[in-house]
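Here is an idea for our session: we take a single protein and study its fold together. Start from the sequence, derive the backbone structure tokens from it, and show both lines together. Once you have written the record down, we can walk along the chain together:
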Amino acid sequence: MFLAQVIGTVVAPVQIPFLDGKTLLLLRPVTPDGARTGKTRVALDHSGAGVGDRVLVLDEGNGARSIYGDSKAPIKTVVIGVVDYVETDAGRVYGHRAPDGAPDSIATANEVTA
């Protein structure tokens, strides 16, 4: 699995029947703090992600096929979730509701005061 930023959608006018009605996303793999890493990829969307979302990606054929319940499905890479936030030892490095590079406005339990 890896983290990625959705940078676009892919439209294929000719495709295999399994992909009919499914969304293909163009992904840029990123580190937890958002730095680019790895090569751009195309993945099948299983989570309703959109351009600009940070997502969790499964990049293993058997796991991807089991998600769709088809052992012969021609897929390897699938978006399995939209990331709400990422925290490291240094603190929160990404928040879905905040623009890239801005502090996240989501209050954690430790930040809420009475």
Remarks:
- Confidence is low (pLDDT under 50) at residues 103-114.
- The helical segments are 61-68.
- The CA atoms of residues 7 and 108 lie 28 Å apart.
- The first strand starts at residue 2 and ends at 10.
